[in-house]
């Protein structure tokens, strides 16, 4: 019996669509049939959510996330994935207020990095994520050091995400700028710690190993939905 997947989405709609599509594609690639797991999506108000992040209204931010989790619980989800990196900054608090499991995107990345024997990773994402501690603290249990770009580079990456990628707009110049940034740092790999960043580039674009947080999270969710905990 497959578990019903609850997706906390809308942050942004572009990544939510990609989550849904990726889970379906991963299932079909593995099994070659259409017995897909059931998926329930609750889409948040992206501007309101982003305003709470930018203004660091963390209690209201947490409450809004929990509101969506309760909507998914009431709709019949068996477990939840939050289709973005940044809400995982308050995951430990949110888990305490949820009645069903929530799968961590940080753990999805950490397990993969550990498998690849990566020891030092460059974190990229929205400014809120790069300036938060949840990736650095989350990677410690995997024996992995996390570094971040400088302030000017963070501003540029943040701009690319919010002014282009969330609108499903990929520019060659932005790809070049992003590659220049990640090539400056002595790291074993790069965390694409915004679920829109994989729209900009993938491993064929660079020699540096890229950790696609969206794909890894989707794989974890599919495995959990199929009750294959050995693969999460």
TrEMBL record:
InterPro entries: Asp/Glu/hydantoin_racemase, Asp/Glu_race, Asp/Glu_racemase_AS_2, Asp_race. It is an enzyme of class 5 (isomerase). GO terms for molecular function: amino-acid racemase activity. It comes from the Bacteria. Pfam families: Asp_Glu_race. Keywords: Isomerase. Its EC number is 5.1.1.-. Gene3D superfamilies: 3.40.50.1860. Belongs to the aspartate/glutamate racemases family. PANTHER family: ASPARTATE-GLUTAMATE RACEMASE FAMILY, GLUTAMATE RACEMASE. This is Putative amino-acid racemase. The gene is racX.
